[in-house]
Design a protein that fits this description.
three-stranded antiparallel β-sheet, 174 residues, alpha+beta, 29% strand, minor pseudopilin epsh fold
């Protein structure tokens, strides 16, 4: 008596799964570039650092101090700073006023290391008062420019763009 068996052997199934894994890895590798990954990563990093600056301003809660981030479009560097109120124009640039972001090695963080360009706001400054309210200019409690419209910071790399948007009044960062 001879039995006819139908089906696949374990070796055949294993070979098919390995081939499918190789093809899938190739297709995914070709569809997502490192530029896209770097741009998304840098956007999330800067978004979180803006939130950190805002949270630090609220946590400190000092009526005589303001926190902010300054962007240098020429070098694509940016840094966290605090300033005494009233704020002098050059105060955000002073090394003594600059603070290292968590997880960073230097006071000045750089998006250019990852090939990312930053097109920030016109003033290149973003301030937060002790309530977390965002400003683009701040001298004292009565002389400042709070946001009238959502603030948009654009990051770009190899023709691709990502944006960070901040809502006026509340400072919600998206």
């Amino acid at each position: 008596m001879h039995h006819s068996q139908h089906g696949f052997t374990l070796v055949e199934i294993t070979v098919v799964l390995v081939l499918m894994a190789i093809i899938t890895a190739y297709v995914i590798g070709r569809s997502v570039s490192t530029v896209q990954v770097d741009l998304v990563g840098q956007t999330d990093r800067i978004r979180n650092q803006i939130r950190y600056a805002q949270a630090t301003a609220m946590k400190r809660g000092d009526a005589n101090e303001i926190w902010g981030i300054k962007f240098d479009p020429g070098t694509d560097q940016y840094w966290l700073f605090f300033a005494s109120i009233p704020v002098d124009a050059g105060e955000p640039d002073l090394a003594a006023q600059q603070v290292i972001f968590p997880g960073e090695q230097n006071k000045k963080a750089s998006a250019a290391d990852f090939g990312v360009d930053i097109q920030p706001l016109a003033s290149n400054l973003l301030f937060f008062d002790r309530f977390g309210k965002p400003y683009t200019q701040y001298t004292d409690a009565t002389t400042n420019d709070d946001l009238d419209n959502p603030l948009i910071i654009t990051l770009s790399a190899s023709g691709q763009n990502r944006t960070i948007t901040m809502t006026p009044e509340t400072g919600l960062v998206q």
